[in-house]
Amino acid sequence: MSTFGSTNLTNEKVSAIFKFSGDNYEISSECLLKGPTLTSILMMINKRFEVLPRIKQQVDSQDVWSDMVALYKGRSVNCYSKLRVSLDDQPAVDTGGVRRQMYTTVFSDFANNKSAALFDGPPNNLRPMCTAEARSSGLLKILGCMVAHSICQDGVGFPHLAQTCYWYIIGGEDKALQFASVEDLPADSAFIVSQVRIYLYNSKPVGVSQYANLLVLTHH
After folding, report:
1. How far is it, in rounded angstroms, from Cα 28 to Cα 40?
2. SS3 for 107-151, per residue?
3. What's the pLDDT tens digit per position in 7-32?
4. Any bridge partners for residue 126, and if so which?
5. Which residue ranges make up each domain of the chain?
6. What is the CATH number of domain 54-164?
């Protein structure tokens, strides 16, 4: 076990923090002594990216989504570098604001299923769709790379997912189920559950077999 701030800090976790710092003892120690906390980890990563090589990328302001997807899909961008964005119709110097706006635009396009149906659900409570298109396109993986790269550059995240999705990423299925609700179900499944609830509320308790039959009838 480690002698740093957190009593739950294992040697494996200390090694991971050190690796994320770019094997920098100074900034990793600063992070560990503060907990580590999410804030201290992000500050450490941002400090590391400040000294990494910068890659200049020109983007068509009228088609940001396509340009950025092509960039990450073709692996033209090294995620261990800082992206410096230049818009083709604007002479702006990117000191961070242009890059953040670009990621914000791209993430919004993803959330709105601009070029592919990847999510369902209401805005800011989205769930990835389990469809052949979503799985085979590779776009969800590309989006994940973009989000991670943006955060490492002190940029924006992807604030559109349902809360259960975040908990699933952090703690797996068991953790996510603790926060799940009817709103997290696809529309057809949510309708079935709501109908079952109404039936059970207005009826006497039913047995398991009756409950199963009710689900089948409601589904049809």
Report:
1. 9
2. HHHHHCCCCCCCEECCCCCEEECCCHHHHHHCHHHHHHHHHHHHH
3. 577 888 899 899 888 889 999 999 98
4. 161
5. 11-50, 54-164, 185-219
6. 3.90.1750.10
CA distance readout (Å), 133 to 117, 125, 206: 7, 21, 40
H, E, C per residue of the chain: CCCCCCCCCCHHHHHHHHHHCCCCHHHHHHHHHCCCCHHHHHHHHHHHHHCCCEEEEEECCCCHHHHHHHHHHCCCCCCCCEEEEEECCCCCCCCCHHHHHHHHHHHHHHHCCCCCCCEECCCCCEEECCCHHHHHHCHHHHHHHHHHHHHHCCCCCCCCECHHHHHHHHHHHHHHHCCCCHHHCCHHHHHHHHHHHHHHHHCCCCCHHHHHHHHHHHHC
Place of tokens 């940001």: 64
178: burial class by Cβ within 10 Å (0-12, 13-18, 19+)? exposed
**Residue located via tokens 């050190």:** 18
Give pLDDT tens digits for 180-198: 777 777 667 777 777 777 7
pTM of the model: 0.76
Specify the residue for token string 């592919």: 116
Residue with tokens 């002698």: 3
* pLDDT at residue 176, rounded to an integer: 84
